[in-house]
Write a structure and sequence with these properties.
Structural class: mainly alpha
Strand content: under 5%
Largest sheet: none
Order of helices and strands: HHHHHHHHH
Oligomer: single chain
């Protein structure tokens, strides 16, 4: 860039006595700026590398410290009490992200406890304490995962209900389903999760059905009966593609009756329009 600028300025300043002087100065400024930029980028990259190294070292030291704590009965007890304190604080705040963070911390604790139990140097008293701690932490882990899934699904479902457009409703509700399915993978027999998942799916289905019924009613009001029938069929598809229930069967019957009424109106229009078409043809033939 400096060389290009030098030659361009030299060519533009050919009328001057010494065109190479301002051209050389401009090129020198470009080279100085590039040099300082290179130094700045190199220094920033070096600082980031050192920060990454320090974080990795701190994480490794924390793991070693945790492993050592697991092998010491007193340290293990202190670690367990700290985890229980964090759990109580998360329950007091009751934010979904806090519960998910505690769920992950419980997982790290259980992983470190399993590794410590594999050590032959761990004495019998420490093994008993570790197993008791694992039982308690597994309960905490389940509690926080279920609380996170329940609160997240409730918040996202409420947010979905406030949305206006159908795709926004479905997208937000599907995010709630992801939270519930994540918890179901860990605890597939949890009835509360299955009920919540069913409720969210019912909301998605009802939103789709209401959307297509609204479009069908609007089309019927405008006299576009074929379009209305197609919309009612779409509503019927979403309504009946899952398991049959009494309320769904009743809603499906109502939609079917609306389709039949629209077909009657459509046939009536054809009968009325047919003589008019014949008269027009006769007139055009005359």
């Amino acid at each position: 860039m400096a060389a290009s600028l030098f030659f361009v300025l030299w060519w533009m300043l050919q009328g001057e006595e010494t065109p190479w002087v301002p051209a050389g100065l401009a090129a020198s400024v470009v080279m100085l700026v590039a040099a300082f930029a290179g130094i700045f980028v190199a220094r920033k990259s070096r600082n980031q590398f050192r920060a990454a190294e320090a974080a990795a070292y701190a994480h490794e030291s924390a793991l070693r410290s945790t492993d050592q704590s697991m092998k010491s009965t007193s340290r293990h007890g202190a670690l367990l009490r700290a985890l229980q304190k964090q759990s109580a604080e998360a329950d007091a705040v009751d934010l979904p992200e806090k519960h998910h963070e505690l769920y992950e911390l419980c997982g790290e604790y259980l992983k470190s406890a399993d590794a410590a139990l594999q050590s032959p140097s761990l004495h019998a008293e420490g093994r008993v304490a570790l197993r008791a701690g694992q039982t308690r932490v597994r309960e905490l882990q389940k509690h926080h995962l279920l609380t996170w899934a329940r609160n997240s699904a409730r918040t996202l479902t409420f947010e979905a209900q406030q949305r206006v457009r159908l795709y926004e409703k479905v997208e937000t509700a599907n995010r709630a389903l992801v939270c519930i399915d994540t918890a179901l993978k860990a605890y597939p027999n949890e009835e509360e999760l299955n009920v919540s998942a069913l409720a969210v799916r019912e909301f998605i289905t009802s939103s789709r059905v209401a959307h297509w019924i609204e479009l069908a009613e609007h089309a019927a009001f405008k006299g576009h009966y074929l379009r209305a029938i197609d919309c009612y069929r779409d509503a019927l598809y979403y309504l009946t593609r899952e398991r049959a229930e009494a309320d769904r069967e009743a809603a499906a019957e109502r939609i079917s009756r609306e389709i039949d009424l629209l077909r009657v109106k459509l046939d009536t229009e054809h009968v009325i329009d047919h003589p008019r078409t014949i008269k027009k043809k006769k007139r055009s033939g005359e």
